[in-house]
């Protein structure tokens, strides 16, 4: 890339600021780094890089650019204040002393110097709201009762004091917490409102009320209260932790890291913050950092089942199955009566093909927590139901119980639909499916127009590129991964398992790096995508290098690696240029079977939200076909297509063509894919452990009347 001239630097800086303001931190960071390559002496750019690191919850990474900015512009108050904020989060007293010494030597204005000293002074105990005429020992007694779990006694005592001292907000806050703990959310909310009417700046009450709203699903209200609590008391760990949780649940995972890290720094024993921080890092596909955070939590004394479960997930995400299995065992050993520990270990054992062990775990989870429908659904993924199975009767009774919440009923509905299909009670399948999908759609709303806009934007971005003329950039990695892509439930897991059974190939599962990396590079601050031709050769090399590094890390030592990421088909042209030696396999299946199978399953929370409505499923598939037609025209011969039904009918012939299309010599092990020992983390985990079977072909026919809205939406795609 040619060096930027001053005018270009100015424009690039403004673009970076817009990207940063839109929350696209990776893109903004790249823009700032481009600027520094042209001119490394711009303090504003170093300052913004520090801000980005701090917003990601990485104060240690923020210090370098901030210090460089300060040395370049030593009189700028904002730089000193940002550095103080980073140091405050690190809580390194020696570093604080050095910083304040430098601040005094710089002869900063007295007001600024006092502000820096105040930010770095040891946290003082939070001032308590005035107790009025209430004796402190009475308050301590109520708190002790709550900690001991004697909530009824605590509520009785709080009501007595509330009546005797109606103007004391502390008592209203304690009563509200008692009511919240006892599941009386409306009454608790009224008491929190009363406490805050008496003392609007009562940080603990703001934080507790925010947490109640969070638990009730009122994210906007929770964020408003929790931000106010943190503003009033930045050193209140429970407020920081709850704010982080609220941000994560709102989809603001990256911004959630800062308050979660702050909560952990303030109170290392706050397990909720430790677990939420690790989960946020896992959601951001940063399992190595999640592992590091969890090891810090363990070093701080955390040793219960939840911390081991989260560690197991972090290790599994890195492909370290044996280490993950040990952590699941540790979780169960730490709390043998934890239904969650048994259920999650059972799900993990399913991915390893250890179905008998998984069944034992699921049955234990159900025995421990019989009112949780999720245990039945996850168990149903691999159990072979037979007519008269007592578990079916138990699920039916619980589903009919009006006291079951929506979430449990949803899981039970999907489990019962699977059981009815397995026992050939076909007339009962669709009523359960319709109920389960309706409850999921109620929980995760979706507008199919979102997908229409996304497909249009992607096609527009790639439309102007002549892939016959544009060649792979010099320096592109020679790594040759094998991407398996297509619709969910189309047979991609089966195809990946066949390829990964080859001695030269390691299976990485669903990684998703390419689609995210390309989308991130193309995204514009105002929405939509810029033209693909705007990406430079160095951009493509970075994308290819990043994908190669990620895949190699997941399957170290493998000559070839598979990535079974569904959305890869959206960016196949970018794959061809960033990884010129890669092979792409597109799996197709009769859309009626594909979509019916999707409709019968539950996906990870918040993903595949189109899946729970028959009309949306049909429209989504038509847009899938539209993208494939687009790439057939743009990349003739650029990917290998395999039809699921052909593979089922002629497994050896189709498998041989598949293996050859991936640039591999044939091995008989590819026909014994169900014996391959590797972790499979998809909804097809049970099927790929079996030899090829034909029962899933045309399964939709029994339910064609129920599926009419889907067929209508599919139109000519059938």
TrEMBL record:
TPR repeats: 43-76, 203-236, 237-270, 305-338, 339-372
InterPro entries for this protein: P-loop_NTPase, TPR-like_helical_dom_sf, TPR_rpt, TPST-like
Keywords: TPR repeat, Transferase
Organism domain of life: Bacteria
Pfam families: Sulfotransfer_3 (PF13469), TPR_11 (PF13414), TPR_16 (PF13432), TPR_8 (PF13181)
Keyword Transferase applies: yes
SUPFAM superfamilies: P-loop containing nucleoside triphosphate hydrolases (SSF52540), TPR-like (SSF48452)
Name of the protein in question: Tetratricopeptide (TPR) repeat protein
